[in-house]
Amino acid sequence: MWRTNLAVAFVVLGTLGVYTAVANMIPQVQSDVPEELVLSADVSPEELVAAGENLYAGSGGGCTACHGLGTRAPDILGTAGSTCETREPGKSCKDYLYESLVDPGAYVVEGFQPIMPDMSRTLSDAQIWSLVAFLESQGGEVTVTGADFAGSDDGPPPTPADPVTDGDAAPGDIDAAALVQSLGCTACHAYGASPGGIGPALSEMAGLELDYLRRSIIDPAADTATGFEALAGTMPATFGELLTESELEAMVTYLAGGAE
Amino acid sequence: MNEPRGVRHPFWQAVLLLIGSYLLFKFGISVLPPLIGIESAPVPASVVLQFMATALVGVLLYVSADETRWKQFKEPIHSVAVDADKKVLRTSMLIALPLLVGFLTYRQVSASVGAPPSLRSVHPAPPNRITFRGESMQLAGLENPLRTTGEMSEHLAAGSTVYVRNCMPCHGDRLDGDGHFAQGFNPVPADFTSNGTIAQLTESYVFWRIAKGGPGLPKEGTPWNSAMPAWEDILEENEIWAVILYMYDQTGWSPRTWEEEHEAAEGGDH
Amino acid sequence: MSESLRHRRAFWGVGLVLVAFGLLALVGAGELLAQDASQIRRYGDFPVIGARGAIWITAQVHLMFAAFVLGVPMFAIVVEAIAIFGGDKRYDKLAKEFTRLLLIAYSATAIWGAMLTFALSSLYPVFWSYLTTIFGPSMWLYAALFIVESFTLYLYYYGWDRWSEGKAKYGHWGLGILLNVWGTIVMFIANGWLTYMMSPPAEVAADTAPDQVQLWSAIFNATWMPINIHRILANVVFGGAIVGMYAAYRFLAAKTDEERAHYDWMGYIGNFIAIGALIVLPFAGYYLGREIYEFNQQMGITMMGGFMSWLWIIQAFLIGVLFLAGNYYLWIGMGRIPGAERFTPYVKYMLVVLVAGVIVWATPHTIIASRDEIAAMGGTHHPFLGALGVMSAKNTAVNLMILTTFLSFMLYRRANKIPVVNWARSGTIAQGAALAIAAVVVTFYGVYGYFVTAIVRIGFSVYQVLAVLAAMLLVVVLDVMMLRGAKSRGEIRWGQMPPRSQYALFVLAVTFTWLMGLMGFARSGIRQHWHVYEVIRDTSAQAATPALGPAATMISVCVLIFLSLVAIIFWLGGLAEKPAHKDPADLVTAVSRGGEV
Hints:
The complex is a heterotrimer of chains A (260), B (270) and C (597). With 270 residues, chain B is mainly α.
């Protein structure tokens, strides 16, 4: 009798186990709640700060990849809310933080490279305002309200007009040196005054095949330079989305020419 | 009783069947269809594993569906496990099996440079409505307005210009996803001539993909890895509709239509 | 009154009291809503598994029991009708044995239903009060019908022996039909509540006050009828599978040959009913899917192509297991039929068709591949397998699998019979031709589907289904006529089954229960982060829809809870018949002997 019971239990649990295992073996895709919809106009400051903190620490904003880690960007946790008052005379804390997020090149803290991406490319207006609220809460008082982004749209943010990324520009018209700065290449690659060290120096790419360079920018995992094997996979794979084709061509030509 | 031997023995039949199906799944699928002119490609390991699991279940059902066959099938296994004269074979099995399991486990967990396989939805779910240049557009039920207004030849000419200027570098002059830059991307650009892309989609879906590009892909299917730009900043609404007309015209596909309207049209015929 | 009866009524009493409490809670919650909405607690919390997990488990287990107590009466009356009109007393005994399992399962359903009500009203108070504002009257009706249904069940079971002869037997059978009518209405009402959450009527918007929603239009929403039909059929399959499992267990535990023969036969009936209804189920599913697409295209695409796309691969896999296990059971069963040897050579061809069908049906459209493999394929779309991953190929595969399973049944049926009518030979040829033509039609439209537009292709699946149904109907009619007065090659040796056939019945039941959980996840998961789709958002911390892995774990937990409780019910059923070894099915005899149960 016990034999039968055990065999039955084995068959039942085995069947359940196989189904559970198969469902867990495949790559998992969770349907997340769309963040930008969460914030309505009558949102409370606490909710804003909480949403901002999620973005700051999570993959949505990706801020912690630089801020607080290493020396590529200032550590702003705990201090941003108080320092923002004094950074730009005549500018309110809230405006200063907002502008720093959508136009990061405007107020680069001394001693740091202008490597931060424009957050409005990936975040909605409401999300950026919640980030501002979170930063204000770091040592200061939250002044952001739902009114700041009321009426803003839920869809992807409008891309600001940026002469460098104009799709119609020919490769020759593009200032690749400016691109190197604005895309944040110098955070890892030695170039000009930046020491680099995480990836090979840009000047070392002189004379490399154009195809190889293209591939290395769009699909960085494809090849890894000698001496940097341990750091393979560090370079973001998103440049294919950020660059227009003419920018890519300008960049490749620039690098092949020794980045000068 | 007359014992079946060699390939007539159920055990060896099962082994042969499994080897045969492995060869078919692993190599047959990629090699055989091109012989009769059907395109094919290497089969990913996950699919081979899935097919093999099904084949294994099928083989086990086959050998155990009949009482005598089941006994004969178990015979060699039983004999290796207990017979005195099979000691060498038994011992080597006892060594080889754990080693095999260990090797497979090692392969499974050892660190490698490749990114883990990802689940990519071929057709992500489109939103109900999108905002195109600040204007709200309802995607469901939306038709290509150019099909009912103006001269088709003019639209196609305009679409051709748009395509050559903007799309060709990646998607190629034959619309087969093999443009000049195509090899720089992984995954490669979409092949419009294949039956799996625009042939299965409504024009409004294609409009959404062109207008919103890689950045506009929904969250549910992340991680997306698309280099497709969001063309809404660069192309006018009519330019996108024109290039869609051009794509369908060149490939010979016709877009998927909206069901309700089809039924309404059918009802009208009767 | 014996101990056991008192216990059972006590169970019942507790169940009803719990339901009444739940309804009181709903009235209370409704009053709360009248207060300032910002003052009240929107969501409760549940230790360890969270509010969502608590609802998930209580709802799923309640649903499994509900499906059981709705499915079993359906074929209890069918089996009783066979006994009445066919005159075979075995069937009557079988129907009664089914019904005895029903009594205990009924109280379990009520208890889990009450737990679900508590969980909803305490963990989702605001949303619960919203639902009760709309559905209040129907909830009272539900409770009233539930009471009527339970009294009908008592009469049906306890009156079995009293009304066993003559006209009274027909009256008894009428009670069984009535029991089904009540059960079906109860299910329809509850379906109205949950389909409203999925597909609220178009006039309901985010700012519509719940007391402005018309009750009837809320119940009669886009997916209500499709779900009703789908669930009725699924309940029959489920009931058959669980009864098959019960019989399998009793078969394995049986000590005498008579017992073994009885439970072997019972398992066969269970499997027959389960697979028979399973064959029609895909058509009901297709209708439901179509309605979902029509209600909201985005919801449809999320379901079929979005983050749930792999769910359908798993589903195909599970249905493949059901088909294989069902056929396997029949094939092994041929070993106990004299004359079946002449059909065994065909088994391997049917197996090849089934395995090929499973392979095609479970071919993913969204292939899991590493970056290198994607590069080798030339994109995420495999040029050859991609063609197998679309509807044309899958419909063809599943229709051929259905035809093959049907053929298995027919061979099984024919195995020990020699037709005596003079047109037997041409009749058999006609049957074979009907099946062959259906297979050709299915394959033709499957292949032709690749050369036409999507909209025409969708129409093809209707032709395929019609061809299969027509062939099956024709073959059955011919078969019935041909086998009239047929000679026997020998009786079926009931009970002479190897144990592994019984494990196939277990796999069948477990798989079907799990599949039910999976489909439940699909149905409520496509709402994503909405309580009521595009009307009321889920703003709780657990609003994200989980991935397949965690969902599968959750489903397995529900299935385990359910099966453990079912095991207890089986054990109780066995306990009841211990004093009366002679007639295991007859509880009343045991009780009337004053048996301490």
